[in-house]
Design a protein that fits this description.
InterPro entries: TAT_signal. Keywords: Membrane, Transmembrane, Transmembrane helix. The structure is a single chain. The chain has 244 residues and is an alpha+beta fold. The chain has one domain. 18% of the residues lie in helices and 28% in strands. The strands form three sheets. Strands 3, 4, 7, 8, 9, 10, 11 and 12 form an eight-stranded mixed beta sheet that branches. The longest helix has 14 residues.
Length: 244
Amino acid sequence: MADRSLCTRRRLLGGLGAVGTAGVIGHVAPGGSPAPDRAGEAASTSERAAGGPDRPTPAVVTDRDAGTTYPLVTYNDRTGEYDVTMPVNVRFDLTGSAYDPSDVLDAVGIGDGWTQVVAAVGEHWPTKDAKPPEVWSGGTSGLVPPVRNYRKPIDPLGPRLCHHLYLWPVRSGGELVGVAGQAHVDVGTVADHVGGGFDEAAGAVASVYSAAGWRVVDADFDYGVSPGRLDFWGPTGDRWLRPP
């Protein structure tokens, strides 16, 4: 099981304060170039292009929903440019409730088989060359990493490693309104894998919260990406999750 001390309300809110100072998640950046053909979470990243900017402008969705508070897609740095990788397919709606992100973490933290992944080697996790996907922060015009990272093994010795969930706090007008989740199946090896199976993974996440009494509502998020990318992703398994 995950170290429960890492999921206490005091520790979490302290971490959220640090993220908030940098500008928590807002809208996906407007404009930019169309998304590349490749999608998925990469466990190893390419070196930045020589002489390139330290924080390059990400390639963004082609037709974003301007009214969306939650992030729509994740990005990875592969060749000195930030590429669209995965759909942000799970939304925890905390608006008007007494719940906060610590409650979101508590539910998955005690879910059967789910454990928190903590950086143990190098700057990123799970290996020194790995880097988690990031989402765009409209407040800072930059990319931000997830605040939590959970996995549930499927077949660690096979090509389908685990269900994987990343979480980011979401603010609107300075107020915390929810948590964004990206759920996928790790496919490949620990050292070199991609994210897929979004519908399956979102369903696995939803089952954890349903068992904890949360309300699960099927959704159809408009990611603003090309039809070709949607075909490549396959069913994204979009879910709204709301507290009991």
